[in-house]
Amino acid sequence: MARRDWRSLDESDVRVRPGRGSRPRSKRRPAHADARPAMVVGVDRGRWTCALDSDPERLVVAMRARELGRTPVVVGDVVGLVGDVSGQPDTLARIVRVEDRSSVLRRTADDTDPFERVAVANAEQLLIVTALADPPPRTGFVDRCLVACYTGGLEPVLCLTKADLASPDELLAQYADLDVPWVVTRYDQDSPELAERLRGRVSALVGHSGVGKSTLVNRLVPDAGLRTAEVSAVGKGRHTSVSAVALPLPGGGWVVDTPGIRSFGLAHVTPDDIVAAFPEFAAPAEECPPGCGHLGPPEDPDCVLDDVVAAGQARPSRLESLRRLLASRAGVDAETGDPT
Ligand SMILES: Nc1nc2c(ncn2[C@@H]2O[C@H](COP(=O)(O)OP(=O)(O)OP(=O)(O)O)[C@@H](O)[C@H]2O)c(=O)[nH]1
Ligand SMILES: [Zn+2]
């Protein structure tokens, strides 16, 4: 990446002209110092739709510059653009740099692509959309989302829909020990609380089919369908599965819808990555035998985390929650034993 090259310059790259003042001049200037910052809001077959200065009204279509090499560029990425950034029809800018990411969500490997790839970059929070009924909540799915958040650097938020059909109390009780923020919604009412939580931030949304995610997005983003068509293949009559699309919120901020993403890739996540999200267990876990999965007996009979609870240094329910997440990483629903 151009920016890395520039950062890695050392004294030998700087030439001081003798007798001409003391201003050092670098032999190589940072490539494309004039590149304009933009956020990627949609990706479709070798074309990236970007919002110049993160302004949803200034969309620019870009291709990747050859110098980027294989650096992946995904929705949410902050990129540097050069060339024609007018956004006029049939113009094409070039992406010359991708800024470091503050968070990542990986999609699971599937039949068409055996690798877990980053699907969304730089989202601050993940809205885990789950219906309270019809379809019934799947805690295995929620748990996998939580693990993806803890290891990808996002704040999780439980978004419980269809509150007109069932009470959230039972589900919330299961997550009380994890201190996950939550909002409850229903399609016949606005949720000022949710709007407030999303305002000015980049939030990814994930949920199974039928939980009411489209209903939610349509309520939050005026012209959501039109916007989606604009930045994806949908409007061109192609039937490609859209990986992710960033939609602007009227009050500022973005929601990143993730159609086609059913779950997140956790194959790269280790048990210790998950334990790190539990401060009271993270340090003691270092005393566990090498390779301990921290599940406790019978899988991990010498795991010390049980001792932490026995010594009164952590609540038993916290260890239960931690172990439920550890089990979800393995792709097995802790409740039903079914694959998630
Ligand atoms: N009772 C009730 N039904 C709802 C609510 N929100 C959505 N629904 C209904 O649930 C069904 C699914 O809603 P969608 O918004 O299409 O769900 P989705 O998650 O986007 O599902 P896909 O489009 O399949 O991805 C529709 O029939 C909605 O009318 C709600 O708050 N209460
Ligand atoms: Zn252990």
Automatic annotation (TrEMBL):
Its main location: cytoplasm. One of several proteins that assist in the late maturation steps of the functional core of the 30S ribosomal subunit. Helps release RbfA from mature subunits. May play a role in the assembly of ribosomal proteins into the subunit. Circularly permuted GTPase that catalyzes slow GTP hydrolysis, GTPase activity is stimulated by the 30S ribosomal subunit. InterPro entries: G_CP_dom, P-loop_NTPase, Ribosome_biogen_GTPase_RsgA, RsgA_GTPase_dom. It is found in: Cytoplasm. Residues 1-35 are annotated as: Disordered. One of its GO terms (biological process) is ribosomal small subunit biogenesis. It is an enzyme of class 3 (hydrolase). The keyword Chloroplast does not apply. It comes from Amycolatopsis arida. This is Small ribosomal subunit biogenesis GTPase RsgA. Residues 112-264 form the CP-type G domain. Monomer. Associates with 30S ribosomal subunit, binds 16S rRNA. Residues 121-262 form the EngC GTPase domain. GTP binds at T161, K162, A163, D164, G207, H208, S209, G210, V211, G212, K213, S214, T215. GO terms for molecular function: GTP binding; GTPase activity; metal ion binding; rRNA binding. Zn(2+) binds at C288, C292, H294, C303. It comes from the Bacteria. Belongs to the TRAFAC class YlqF/YawG GTPase family. RsgA subfamily. Keywords: Cytoplasm, GTP-binding, Hydrolase, Metal-binding, Nucleotide-binding, Ribosome biogenesis, RNA-binding, rRNA-binding, Zinc.
